[in-house]
Design a protein that fits this description.
Layout (H helix, E strand, L loop, with lengths): L2 E3 L5 H11 L4 H7 L5 H18 L4 E5 L5 E8 L8 H14 L1 H15 L8 E8 L8 H15 L5 E6 L3 H8 L3 E9 L2 E9 L2
Parallel strand pairs: 4-5
Antiparallel strand pairs: 1-2, 2-3, 3-4, 5-7, 6-7
Helix pairs in contact: 1-3, 2-5, 3-4
């Protein structure tokens, strides 16, 4: 199974993979809280994340199985700042109006905390990387990370790749892959995050 850059991304398909991978992820639980309809609200939140990259035409990578089903995906932010298109602003405002002000505040709090753990020089940021539960343990995450590292190394103004994790067991995984731990901070009493960076070779 090879990594592909999805030039014409299927947003519902990518969203479905990431919802499966991130269903119990601490950030999603933190932002969405304990209200009803978690599945539906998670779907809308993840769709916004996917749309943010798609509408900016930033890299979305994927891996398909032999049945041509998407089983893993990664969302990447490019080094140069890209203003959000008006369509994304509309989607974002509609989402927060629907989810609520508390959810918006928690998301912004998380974003502020993670931004402090990133290098200042221009670089790629790995926003989300997810593998369907049925395909985990097969090395697909490493394949996606390798592909993102190649993108960064070939980009003329990228110093490397940053990423965050909110699962402590992932810390040793990223250290094993050669990422430097830049810091750790508590986003909230119930959520902590670790920031990593790997410079281009």
């Amino acid at each position: 199974m090879n990594v592909l850059i999805l030039c014409d991304p299927n947003i519902p398909e990518i969203t479905d993979v990431l919802c499966d991978a991130f269903y119990n992820y601490p950030v999603m639980n933190y932002v969405l809280g304990e209200k009803e309809n978690y599945d539906k609200r998670l779907l809308k939140l993840v769709k916004l994340f996917v749309s943010a990259r798609a509408l900016r035409q930033e890299p979305i990578l994927g891996i398909y199985n032999s049945e041509k089903e998407l089983v893993a995906a990664a969302l990447v932010t490019l080094p140069q700042a890209i203003l959000p298109p008006q369509e994304f602003v509309r989607q974002r405002d509609n989402l927060w109006a629907e989810l609520g002000s508390g959810e918006k505040a928690r998301y912004e709090n998380y974003g502020l905390a993670t931004s402090r753990l990133r290098p200042k020089e221009p670089h790629h940021h790995l926003n989300m990387i997810g593998v369907r539960n049925a395909y985990q343990g097969k090395g697909l995450a490493c394949k996606l990370i390798d592909a993102v590292e190649t993108l960064a190394s070939e980009h003329p103004s990228s110093a490397g790749i940053s990423l965050d994790t909110e699962v402590e067991s992932n810390v040793s995984f990223y250290l094993h892959l050669g990422y430097e731990l830049l810091g750790q901070t508590n986003v909230d009493n119930n959520l902590e995050t670790w920031g990593f960076f790997k410079a281009n070779n």
